[in-house]
Amino acid sequence: MEILKGFEQVNVYVDGLGIVKKTIKVEDGKIDKICDCVGKEGFLKLDDKLVVLPGFIDEHVHGCNNSDGMYANLDDAKNISKNLVSDGTSSYLVTTMTQSVENIDAALKNAKELIDNKLYEGAKPLGIHLEGPFISKKYKGAQIESCIVPCDVELFKHFEEVSGNHIKEVTLAYEENGKELVNYLKNKGIVASLGHTNATCDQALEAFREGATCTTHTYNAMKPLHHREAGVVGAALLNSDVYAELICDLIHVSDNAIRLLLKCKGKERIILITDSMESKNLPDGKYALGGQDVYVKNGEARLIDGTLAGSTLKLNVGLRNFKKVTGLSMEDVCDLATKNPAKNLGVFDHKGSIKEGKDADFTVVDEDFNVYLVVSEGKIVYNKL
I want to staple 42 with a disulfide (CB 3.0 to 4.6 A). Which of 5, 277, 371, 380 is the partner? Predict the structure, then answer.
């Protein structure tokens, strides 16, 4: 894998400065220096229409290119890492689903081996997002109902041990005996995210007070906003500190719902995700998600009963869509897939922005967020220049 020495006098989004013309020196996978000087031999020069952004972080992605995080073999795990980079993604969370304990264990063990032995060659897995089995049957979405169980700290501790302590985020239904689990996650520094939940507004607000810090694919698979019961959506809009994941494919959520979320949450608390499944980067057809058949037509992934089942979204397209709908600047939209997830996951000290001393994670795009180059910790993992 080619090692990046640096960029010479390129347009770059530098933390605290905005998009400026700078030279960036990379050393041992870190950003060593950002300056106005002329670069050394071997530094990349870019077309003036391109911009160097921080590497994108997808904290909720199931798979792509015929592979899924629940497929417990290393070939699939490596395939996801290699293929996510075409989105501009430099790091991500391996995301599981509600299945049997045995199947979840197998997926966690596989992710542990991938992470511990650094077997990935593309985007870096920062850890695991455990989506279920602690969810609501009413808002199960594309998850298997027979495998859903109430929140259980002892069962989570089992998953935690099997994963090698790599679980960074848990999607759960707080109303299903969730208080003790949320408290446990908070104390361990693991993100508790409300999703696939039938919680009332009051229950969700209680969850936030107890330590939940995020909502999973906001609007989708949760009690909606109603004038007599504001639901999880209402609670998320009321709480200014909680992060809100968003699938911005313009299928899961409408333009106006996106604008409403931005107006209530502000750009500092929205996290763009893909929630993509194995059909991403592939033609329409029949695929699978969580052990169920999924039919993809015109880019929409649905179960046979019409239930949305993940997405085929690329993260860079989600950024493009958000910019078009809201009119935010490239820098502000970029934060939704870099700075915000990094802060949510507690890794902003070394990822999520371009700053001296941080990991050399970069995504090079044009004004429409088309991806030309991706660098993960100083290694060029995608190159269309």
Answer: 5
pLDDT tens for 121-174 read 999 999 999 999 999 999 999 899 999 999 999 999 999 999 999 999 999 999
Q: Is 361 a catalytic residue?
A: no
Q: Which of 112, 119, 122 is nearest to 64 (CA)?
A: 122
Helix H or strand E encompassing 180: helix 179-188
Q: Which of 84-93, 231-240, 254-263, 286-295 bottoms out in mean pLDDT, i.e. has the lowest?
A: 286-295
Amino acid at 335: D
In which residue are the tokens 């033609």 written?
283
- Given a contact cutoff of 8 angstroms between Cβ atoms, the answer to whether 123 and 57 are in contact is no
Which superfamily, per CATH, for 56-344?
A: Metal-dependent hydrolases (3.20.20.140)
DSSP state of 136: -
Q: Where are the domains of the chain?
A: 6-52+353-383, 56-344
| 300 sits in which H/E element | strand 300-302
Please provide residue 99's backbone torsions phi and psi, each rounded to the nearest 5 degrees. Answer: -140, -170
Catalytic residue among 275, 335, 359, 361: 275
pTM beyond 0.85: the answer is: yes
The residue among 113, 12, 44 whose CA lies nearest residue 72 is 113
